[in-house]
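Task card 7
Instruction: Convert sequence to C-alpha cells.
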Amino acid sequence: MYSILGMALGSIRSDENYVYVNGITLHDVQSVQGSTSLNRTSVNVAGIGHMASIHEGVLNGNFSMERIAVNEDPFTGDLHKVPFTGVWEYTDSSDVSKYFAAHSGYLSSYSFNASVGQIPTISTEITAYGNMIGGSVGTGDITRDDDGLEDNFIYPKQIELSYTDGDTNRVQSFNLSFSIPRVTRDRLGALKSIPDTFVAYPIQASLSIDLEVDEYSATDIETLICQDTQDISLTMQTCGGTNIRNFTFESGILNSQNLSASVGGLNTLTLEYVKYINDINDISGILS
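Output:
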C-alpha cells in the first residue's frame, strides 16, 4: 500500500522530493515546507492616497521539515551555531528538477518528540535572510551526498529519566524543544545581500515529561518560586536495552505540573521545565 501527494495528472509525488542539509541527503523526511516573505510599507500622499509600496528590510525565507528520528542527526553537531544550506529538490511532470533552497540559513527551532512504543520525530525550522532562492537545478547549484547519514531508526523500548534527586523508568513520553531568536542588521544599498545576523539572548529551552505515578505530592506555590534547579537526563533504549539517544537538561526550572486520574486508567503526571541559555555553544550539551 502506498500514498501519493495529489492525484491529478502531472502532480508531483512524495517520492519525487529530496531534502539535503549541507549536501547530505536526509532519508528520514516525512514532510517539508518552504516559504518566503518581504515586508512592504505603503507610501500615501495627501490628496492622492496610495502612491507606491517600499521594501522594508531583506527577503526572509523559512524552510521547515518533520523527520523520523534516526541515530545520526546533522543538527546535533555545529549546525545550530553556524549558517548552512538546506535544499528541497523535486522533479516536475517534465522530469525537470526544481529546488527551493536556503543558502546561509540558520537553525531557528528544534523539537524532539518521543513516546514509548512509537518512532520519535524531529521538527526543525531553518530561517534564511536575503538568500532564499528557487528555480531549476543547474550544474553546481546543489552539492549532494546521496549516501546520506546512517539510517538506524530509533524505536525506544523504554525511556529512562534521571534527575538530581533520583530516577524512574515510568516515563511515557517527552518533548524537548528550543528556539533561537535572531536579529539582523541591515545596511543601506544591500537589499539583496545577506545581513549581519546575531542571536537575541537568552535562548529558551523547554522540556515536557509525561510519566505514570503511584505516589506524588503536588508542589506548593512557594516551593515553585524558591525551588532549586534540576539536572535532568533522558535516555532512550532499544528492545535489547542498548542506549540509542541521550538528552541532558541541566539547571532546569519546574514551571508547571499537572496531575490527573481517570476511571480504568493510571495516575499520570506532566512536568514542564524551562531553562535559559546565554551562550549558543551550550545547546551542544542538550543534544548529546
